[in-house]
């Protein structure tokens, strides 16, 4: 096998392992399930590698008594076994050793898999500050939720919805990673903001540096580095039977200036050329009656605005003055936004 093929197989191994861990930890929501299905079907090697890892994983509970055999299996470099069989003996016995002796094997079985993941959440219009075990601080926006998964190798935060601001204590030996939708944000000693809405992820940096990459990017693109004052947006793309993010995965991550990324902590929502759909998603985390969009096309309109969360009804009433839309107030105080008649 040539070096390129080896590197490619290593990538597939890492991706298959990541999917296996994600499925075992929390299962997959419909969006991530579509992403997994697309990855699984995109290359026969994906399906084969995942199937082998799944079989090994399923065998672990029954075979932990054989973990002491791992050294003998790993020492077989004589060439008597085919490469694939030697590799999967290493996987099998290494994984068993991880369970039996808390070691790290080819399938990296994370320690956090065996302990509850602390979760923090906020209610409508609530903002909450959390200090993590490593001293890092997180400010959760309204109707937001994170789970904290720290191990000896990494500090991982999963933002399952809403918005969070991170003030990270840097530790090069334990990377700080934030997973949000289709994106992974890696801290390089910084303060940054991550906003996850249905169909989009927005990252803004206040201080220091972060690297942003897509989980489902099959192009092998280099992670994009953002510095203080910059932001990036990653969007979903509607495609039947494919991850909502799959089409966007091939598009470049565009870096832009970040306007007041932490203004929401002071009760003000600030936007510079963002989708109306993302603005509405944020508003719905602060305003109980809610804002709905008549159709996806309306949500793709771009808006620049700044208003207090206490001024949401007034802003929605005046929205038609800046966009070709009609915002109608419903009987319950909510708003429905549709395209203005031509």
Plain-language structure description:
The protein is built from 8 helices and 18 strands. It is of the alpha+beta class and 342 residues long. It has 3 domains: 3-109, no CATH class; 114-257, Jelly Rolls (Sandwich); 267-339, Phage tail protein beta-alpha-beta fold. A hairpin with a 4-residue loop joins strand 4 and strand 5 (155-167). Helix 2 (30-42) packs across helix 3. The protein is globular. The model is unreliable at 1-6, 60-115 and 237-251 (pLDDT under 50).
How do you describe this structure in short?
This protein is of the alpha+beta class. It has eight helices and 18 strands.
The helix/strand order is HHHHHEEEEEEEEEEEEEEHEHEHEE
Task: Please tell me the overall pLDDT.
Answer: 77
Backbone shape: globular
- The CATH class of the largest domain is identified as Mainly Beta
Number of helices: 8
Query: What is the fold-level CATH name, i.e. the topology of the largest domain?
Result: Jelly Rolls
Largest sheet: 13 strands, mixed
Distance between the termini: 62 Å
Residue share in helices?
25-40%
CATH architecture of the largest domain: Sandwich
Rg, Å, rounded: 23 Å
Strand-residue proportion: 25-35%
Number of domains: 3
Report the uncertain regions.
Answer: 1-6, 60-115, 237-251
* Backbone structural class: alpha+beta
Topology, please?
Elements: H1 3-26, H2 30-42, H3 44-63, H4 70-74, H5 83-101, E1 119-121, E2 128-131, E3 137-140, E4 145-150, E5 155-167, E6 176-180, E7 183-187, E8 191-197, E9 200-207, E10 209-214, E11 224-227, E12 230-235, E13 255-257, E14 268-275, H6 276-283, E15 291-293, H7 296-299, E16 302-308, H8 312-318, E17 325-329, E18 335-339
Parallel strand pairs: 5-6, 15-18
Antiparallel strand pairs: 1-4, 2-3, 3-5, 4-5, 5-8, 6-7, 7-10, 8-9, 9-12, 10-11, 12-13, 14-16, 17-18
Helix pairs in contact: 1-3, 2-3, 3-5
